Amino acid sequence: MEKLHLEYPAGAPATQRVLVGVVASGDLEILITPAPAGRCHITIHSAADGSATRWRAQLERLFADGKAAAMQMEINDFAATPGVISLRLAQALEELSA
Questions:
Q1: Cα–Cα distance between 94 and 88 in angstroms, integer?
Q2: How many structural domains does the chain have?
Q3: Which pLDDT band holds residue 12 (cuts at 50, 70, 90)?
Q4: Which domain holds residue 28?
Q5: pTM
Q6: Separation of alpha carbons 15 and 49, rounded Å
Q7: Percent of the chain clearing pLDDT 70 (strictly above)
Q8: What is the SS3 assignment for 11?
Q9: Which pLDDT score, from 0 to 100, does residue 37 have?
Q10: Residue 61: its pLDDT value, please?
Q11: Which own/partner pairs from 80-89 qualify as long-range (CB within 8 Å, at least 24 positions apart)?
């Protein structure tokens, strides 16, 4: 099991809490809570050792511009594929902007 902590620049605080996905075989869960303006704090609990490179690549594409809402994001990963990761992240961010 691996635990990662990542941080990215952000804008204004998120306005709501979000929960998408479930922790089950080959899937993942994302929980978002608002955080103070300026930073996205991301914690990933992954069942797959050596997943840091995969996670950094996925998240840097999303948060590189610094325009995301400030949030605390907790991700519980049960060895999800890159496609499932992309889907769940898109769902979570869509819910956040709704």
A1: 10
A2: 1
A3: very high
A4: 2-97
A5: 0.90
A6: 33
A7: 99
A8: coil
A9: 86
A10: 87
A11: 80/26, 80/27, 80/28, 81/26, 82/54, 82/58, 84/26, 84/27, 84/28, 85/28, 85/54, 85/55, 85/58, 86/58, 88/20, 88/21, 88/27, 88/28, 88/29, 88/30, 89/30, 89/58, 89/59, 89/62
Query: Cα 93–97–98 angle (5° rounding)?
Result: 115
What CATH number does residue 86 fall under? 3.30.230
Give pLDDT tens digits for 23-44.
877 789 999 999 988 899 999 9
Tokens of 20: 């998408």
Please provide the size of the chain in residues. Answer: 98
Hey, is 69 helix, strand or coil? Answer: coil
